[in-house]
What does this fold into?
Amino acid sequence: MGKKRKQQHKKRQNVEGVLSQDNQPKVDTDTLGPEEQGIVISRFGQQVDIADQNFNTIRCFLRRAKEVPVVGDKATFQRQDKLDTGVLVKFEERTSLLKRPTPHHGIKPVAANIDLIALLLAPELGFSEMLLDRYLVAAESSNIPVWLVFNKWDLLDDEQKTVIQQRLKTYQDVGYPIYFISAKHGDQVDELVKDLRGKQLLLAGQSGVGKSTLIKYLFPDLEVATADISENSGLGTHTTTASRLYKLDDDTYLVDSPGVREFGLWHLEDHDIQQGFVEIYKLAENCKFRDCKHIKEPGCAVLAAAKSGDIAESRINNYHHLIQNYDQQFN
Ligand SMILES: Nc1nc2c(ncn2[C@@H]2O[C@H](COP(=O)(O)OP(=O)(O)OP(=O)(O)O)[C@@H](O)[C@H]2O)c(=O)[nH]1
Ligand SMILES: [Mg+2]
Ligand SMILES: [Zn+2]
It folds into this structure.
């Protein structure tokens, strides 16, 4: 550990006053209550915030950091007598685990038990099919359904709206549900939320698309940090720095997460790219060769569909770009 980090580390320990030198929590086991069920709403190093059945927050220490829980994990914990702290006992097996790339080619888990990704898009960051397709490939590789939410609809005039709707029609045709909302003003948010009921979803999308603004609109009493794009336009800065889970109702939960900027760092295997373009993947079973990559192989059903217009030009072009250039560009 570098000197500076060591100092910071020490400072954090002092401030919080809860971790001993060997990073083990000082837990007075005599005062621990019975086991309770909860859900992890946030994580800070060796601690997690767990919401209990009433959605009150208990800061819990990880006793043995064998496997680390993440936001969305269903957890069993024990509360310390009369305190809003406790210890995590265990967490349940996950139905899904979403991961994201770190700036240094690593991959870290972000959220567990997510059953829907709401991918937010916004006009002023320059809506691009290429970026969207990359997001979709990454999302599809997690096998979690994706919905597209075009936010900041209020910033567009009628002509611009028509253009965006036409461009997104390609994705509607492929099968992605699309919503056009204004999180800031609440336009169409109720319609979106009605369809989200019963799900545990992650809000994803570039920094500045308005993920936290949507949370803020849905939870007006909570303090949620948001910032103008001009304020946070420096590379690597994000207004939201840690994922956090919010409860909408008994079976609807939303996770706000920091926007991903470094999408190029997401390592994608060829088969991720192939499966990530769902309409291409579906057609691939009609190709003459089982290992067809739909580049220039004879008897390729995908290229035939692209030629006849059944696959959108931008999609096949982006697919080709990713499948042919990905390795050279990003590894
Ligand atoms: N006009 C308009 N502005 C919006 C809307 N939604 C969000 N914004 C603005 O967009 C900026 C960025 O919003 P945030 O909610 O902080 O974006 P974020 O996606 O949470 O960004 P990170 O936390 O950095 O990933 C803020 O200035 C918001 O006020 C909208 O519907 N319309
Ligand atoms: Mg945010
Ligand atoms: Zn093919």
